[in-house]
Amino acid sequence: MSNGADFNDIQRRMEGAVNAFKHDLASLRTGRASSNLLDPIQVQAYGSAMPIAQVATISVPEPRMISVSVWDKSMVGAVDRAIRESNLGFNPIMDGTTLRIPLPELNEQRRKELVKIAHTYAENARVAVRHVRRDGMDHLKKAQKDGDISEDDSRVQSERVQKLTDETISTIDSLLTGKEAEIMQV
Q1: pLDDT for position 5
Q2: Exposed/middle/buried for residue 88 (C-beta within 10 Å: 0-12, 13-18, 19+)
Q3: Of 99, 50, 55, 100, which is closest to residue 75 (Cα–Cα)?
């Protein structure tokens, strides 16, 4: 799209919004264990806050169990404290330098809360995509006003940006539907 909106940039930014949404969904607990559940946890280690993945190896030995193998023996207490204080509802069991985190069954109320959170993440992703669309449309209007592209080219490119926007929002909606079904599955 010479002199109009940079279509590749618009596409890249929309894909970025979808990828961020996928990452947000991965951190939602569905009933089976995932190492992504511990991603938001920060551990006070060596004088600063560090992601838990930088002080331990996280694995999933069973569907309802997360195992955290702390590399430095002196950090086990700090990792345990960080997990307990994370408000994720986890109670680790210490076993030497390994912390085992059993995942309790999700009740109906908690499942509904998780679905609401997923809907919030989806709306944030849709808003991000719409912002990218707006930027692209503004760029096209400016290029047309400056005489860089014709009115016909502007209209064609606008339709292309809108089509990409619709496809991206449809992708977000289908990801949300899949996650919702996964969360509500007993």
Answers
A1: 59
A2: middle
A3: 55
Residues 41-71: b if buried by 16+ CB within 10 A, e if exposed: bebebeeeebebeebbebebeeeeebbbebe
Q: Are 39 and 50 in contact (CB under 8 A)?
A: no
Residue-level pLDDT at 29: 67
Contacts of 119 (CB under 8 A, 6+ apart): 176
Cβ proximity of 33 and 64 under 8 Å: yes
Residues of the chain short of pLDDT 50, as ranges, are 1-3
pLDDT at position 2: 46
Of the candidates 51, 100, 102, the one whose C-alpha atom is nearest the C-alpha of residue 80 is: 100
The predicted pLDDT at position 37 comes to 78
Q: What is the DSSP letter of 163?
A: H
CA dihedral 42, 178, 22, 114 (to 10 degrees): -30
What are residue 30's phi and psi, to 5 degrees? Answer: -115, -10
Q: In what order do the strands lie in the sheet with 56-62?
A: 56-62, 65-70, 98-102, 93-95
